[in-house]
Prior knowledge:
The protein is an alpha+beta fold. The chain has one domain (3-103): HIT family, subunit A, CATH 3.30.428. 24% of the residues lie in helices and 22% in strands. The chain has three helices and five strands, in the order αβββαβαβ. A hairpin with a 7-residue loop joins strand 2 (23-27) and strand 3. The chain starts with a helix and ends in a 9-residue tail after the last strand. Bound molecules: guanosine-5'-monophosphate.
Amino acid sequence: MTLFEKIISREIPAEIIYEDDHCLCFKDxxxxxxxxxxxxxxRPIPRIAEAKNTDQExxxxxxxxxxxxxxxxxYEEEGFRVVIxxxxxGGEAVPHLHLHLLAGRQLQWPPG
Length: 112
Ligand code: 5GP
């Protein structure tokens, strides 16, 4: 069981921002910006490169939901960033797909 599955089952506590039948959003434990949330599917997909056609609806739901959360939390006007890390060079540490939502400061491009 991944760390994030333990957060879904409440075995590990997290500051939960949003939840529905398909996904959970909570604060990152080591924030890289004033706002740093993680949005994860409840049905585990290890990483984006391993998503299947059968995950299409869930992936769409995650993208729509991250936009709604950003809007509802008030980050739309100043802007925000959504990041998915995949594999070693991508900086992936937890093998359970997660969207990072970063906001609250000017983010650099290209990323480091
Ligand atoms: P990745 O590097 O895999 O894209 O992102 C994993 C993220 O999970 C990191 O930003 C890290 O800070 C966060 N993280 C790791 N362990 C925990 C935890 O126990 N609780 C929470 N809320 N976030 C975690």
